[in-house]
Each structure stands twice: as C-alpha cells, then as structure tokens.
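One such given next:

>
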Amino acid sequence: MIIGIDPSLRHMGIVVFDDKLGTSTYNTVFETKRMGAERLNLAYEFVNSLLVMYKPELVVIEGYAFGARGSMVFSIGELGGVLRLLLYQKSIKTVEIPPTTLKKFVCGKGNVKKNILIKEVYKKWGIDFDDDNLADAYGLARIGSVIVNKSKLKKYERESLKNYL
C-alpha cells in the first residue's frame, strides 16, 4: 500500500493506493473547521489511524507551496511538521514531492492550474475527482507506485522524477 497526502489546512486530500492491484482503495478529504493545536491533533489522529489500518510501504507527501502569506505560512508549516513527525515516529518511508514535480509528472508541465491537474488525472488514469486535493493525492500515490515498482515511464515522467528514482 502507498498513501498519497496533499496536506492542506482546510481540505487535506488522502489516497490509499494498492500498488499490487493498481487501484485506490480509499480516497478522502480530511476537513475540519477547528484551529490551532486542536486542528493539528485531529489531523495527527486521523492520519495515524490510516497508517495503522493500511500499513503503507511508502507515503508520498506534497512538499510546501511557497505562495502562502501571513500567518498561514506558520499554520501550514505546523501541519507539515506534525505529519512529518508522525511518519518519522512510525518509521514509514516517506518521499516529499514538490508541487511543480507533481504537476510535471501528471501533466507534462510544472506550472498548470489545479483544475487542469484534475482533468489530466482523469485523462491519464480514468479516475474522476471533483476535488483538486484528492487529485493531487492520487497523483502522489501514483508517483509512489512508480518509485516502489520501478515502473516504465514516459520521457516527461522520468524527467520529473529523476531525483527520486
């Protein structure tokens, strides 16, 4: 099992991908209106429950986007730190993929808008999401599958993942 996580303060996309079957077995968006430490704790507990349930071989998490402003920067950093600490504590192999690398792997270009990525996920794998966080998490899980299984890649996919293979 591989888990793809698109960490977001309001809508964290999570996909559990069975790389042996080539299908996602669980797709969810973790949502909470809670703030501060309560939000961090809820996210920690939720992701931990998935790690315990699915026992992933690899977790692929989207790296930080640097477009955030103001106090959101700190909140995003806190959530990212909590998730990375959890993965470290569980000794789960983790790969962090920058947003531009994810976009290039899925779309062939690293600067596409989120709605295009949703469309490209559907065109590439036939999976239809109406939430861009889930589409991102699915793309991350597919990257994890490539890393684990050393799958054959198209040229632009191989170029986007050259630092991870």
